[in-house]
Design a protein that fits this description.
With about 120 residues, this protein is mostly helical. It has one domain (about 5-120). It contains one helix and two strands, in the order E-E-H. It has one helix at about 40-120, and strands at about 5, 10. The radius of gyration is 42 Å and the shape is elongated. The N and C termini lie far apart (about 110 Å).
């Protein structure tokens, strides 16, 4: 079997123009000896009950997953809100500190300037 070698966007020289013939063989096996029995009303009823029970169980599990994921989401969102509140409080505290430092520096500069003025006046 020849393997196509590709270089870049074109086939390389060793790939050439050889085409392979592929033969697919399909065999169908029919076995008439397999008998599943007669389908009775009881079998139909049992099948219907099994399907309905499976659907009911799947719906219950689905509701449990939805409830659990909703609860987890609400818990996560509350955690995010707490972190956001803490960040906002820290930001406000920093802004207050900057404001106090700026005004404190201005008062200190004004006081030093006034003392120099008084010293020069004497």
């Amino acid at each position: 079997m020849e393997v196509d070698n590709w270089v870049g966007i074109e086939p390389s020289a060793s790939a050439g123009a050889n085409f392979q013939n592929i033969v697919v063989s399909q065999t169908n096996i029919l076995n008439e000896a397999c008998v599943f029995g007669n389908v009775t009303q009881a079998t139909l009823h049992d099948t219907r009950v099994a399907v309905e029970t499976t659907i009911h169980v799947a719906e219950e599990r689905h509701q449990q997953v939805i409830y659990a994921s909703s609860h987890a989401h609400q818990h996560e969102m509350e955690s995010v809100r707490c972190v956001a509140r803490a960040a906002q409080e820290a930001n406000q505290a920093l802004q207050d500190m900057v404001f106090r430092l700026q005004h404190g520096d201005n008062a200190e500069v004004a006081r030093n300037t006034r003392l120099r003025e008084l010293e020069l006046a004497v």
